[in-house]
Amino acid sequence: MVSAAYAKHDGPADERAALYAAVLGFMDDTSVKVRASLAYGLLHAETAPHLVMVSLANDAPIIARAVVQYSPVLLDVDLLAVAKTSGVEVREAIANRKQLSAKLIRALVSFGHCQITLSLLERGDIRIPTDVLERLTAREGKNARFRGRLLRRPELPALCRLALVKQVSQALGNSRLVKGAVSPARLRRLMGDALDNSTTLLGELEVQERRSDFTLGLHAADRLNTRLLLHALVNGRVLFFADCLALLAEVPHNKVFALLGQGSRVGLNALLSQCGMAPALRNLVARLVIFARTADLSDDISAKHFIVTALTRELVVEHDGKIPDELEQAFTYLNEQNVKLAREAAQGVMPAFSEQSDKSLQLPEATRIESPDSAPRLLALSAA
């Protein structure tokens, strides 16, 4: 075959020129089979003539699909030109190329073909540009199929991930199955707590990776509220908590860490005052910081429960049961967390108790009865 001979030729230049002329002649053949054979012979060749492959890429779809997917000599500009004038099948073939540039990915997504975009999101061997992921999050965030594939992308920006988690939370909250099983008030608390937990966890991971866009984005969206700061502190997300304070107070991170680790209550109050907190609230947060220095709040549920309980009791005693208005939101949040933490701490009590209990308190072994025509059977109660 001429195309295969040209692709593998390493002889004299005049022979190569003759083969090239023959390839050009077959390129104008009226038979699709002839042109397809030509494309097949040059499909994977890095020495294939660029002019010929561009022409074949604009040929009949049955030829163009193979050429745009496999030919290594086609440039991005060639593929973009083909994609603009071709149908969905050829664009799908381009999306299946082994390597795709950011420019090609942007173009393919911009056409708006659902299946092509989903196939690109499923590929773990390519990196999708951040601006494309942000656009897809805003455009397709309510679509469960897109949400799942977007959330699996490791390069998905944290703010996009949080937006998708919020969409998941809303979808669960609107589900008839969930709404029928959980009371509205408790469902709101559960979803709100889950969203706060996701936000602070993402914030902690972003600070660990030395990325500040997440905290800046929350601040720009006015999401750095008292509840979120308390949630970060109660759950041991200290890096995120410190990053938020540094941003709000406009203080260097090292100074914030020093105050949180060893600063006096006066120093902590001064830092929290620069964050714009009211006196009663910053006094509460300062106490919580000092309590938190004695325990690992990231893992120890019992320690969390003890600290939140101690703090709420102090507030009740100090204010004689009349919590000020400026502390009402924080106190309500701490009470909600205390109930949740008490339940989580209690989950390990009964298993631990049963492991240490006396044998006399354990159930007797099942009684076996002999059957004349079979092996011994266990005596059991009939089904209710």
**Strand order in the largest sheet:** 1-2
Total helical elements: 23
Coarse structural class = mainly alpha
- What summary fits the major beta sheet? 2 strands, antiparallel
Helices and strands, in N-to-C order?
Answer: HHHHHHHHHHHHHHHHHHHHHHHEE
Distance between the termini: 79 Å
Q: Give the percentage of residues in beta strands.
A: under 5%
Tell me, rounded to a whole number, the average pLDDT.
Answer: 83
The radius of gyration computed from the alpha-carbon positions, rounded to a whole number of angstroms, is 33 Å
Q: Give the low-confidence spans.
A: none
- Please bin the fraction of helical residues: 55-70%
* Overall strand count: 2
Overall spatial form: elongated
Map the helices and strands.
Elements: H1 2-8, H2 13-27, H3 32-42, H4 50-57, H5 61-70, H6 76-85, H7 88-95, H8 102-110, H9 114-122, H10 130-140, H11 144-151, H12 158-174, H13 176-181, H14 184-208, H15 213-220, H16 226-234, H17 238-249, H18 253-262, H19 265-274, H20 279-292, H21 301-318, H22 325-347, H23 349-356, E1 368-369, E2 377-378
Antiparallel strand pairs: 1-2
Helix pairs in contact: 1-2, 1-3, 3-5, 5-7, 6-8, 7-9, 10-11, 10-12, 12-14, 14-16, 14-17, 16-17, 17-18, 19-20, 20-21, 21-22
Would you give an account of this structure?
The chain has 384 residues and is mostly helical. It has a domain at 1-98. Helices cover 69% and strands 1% of the residues. The protein contains 23 helices and two strands. The protein has a two-stranded antiparallel sheet. A hairpin with a 7-residue loop joins strand 1 and strand 2. The longest helix is centred in the middle third of the chain and has 25 residues, at 184-208. The radius of gyration is 33 Å and the shape is elongated. The relative contact order is 0.04.
